[in-house]
Amino acid sequence: MNNTIDLSKPVAQTIKEHPEVKDILIELGFKPLANPAMLKTVGKVTTLLAGSRIAGIPLEKIKQTLEFNGYDVLGDE
């Protein structure tokens, strides 16, 4: 199993590749991801990089949480 998450990919694509990440992201503060309509619309065009700015969640916190849960994180350059 590929445990790499690219922060520059759309959130919907990340969740499609790693469904278990959805709950982690919601706990981090990405509450709109709990709404399937939001995931299908905004999630298709918004990356975790952009989402961190929009939601006011520090990118470092996202990276640390994902790494703590066993993921390699790319795309934060």
Automatic annotation (TrEMBL):
Identification of the protein by name: DUF1858 domain-containing protein
DUF1858 domain mapped to chain residues: 5-62
SUPFAM superfamilies in the record: SP0561-like (SSF140683)
Pfam families noted in UniProt: DUF1858 (PF08984)
InterPro entries with a match to the protein in the record: DUF1858 (IPR015077), ScdA-like_N_sf (IPR038062)
Gene3D superfamilies to which the protein is assigned, alphabetical: SP0561-like
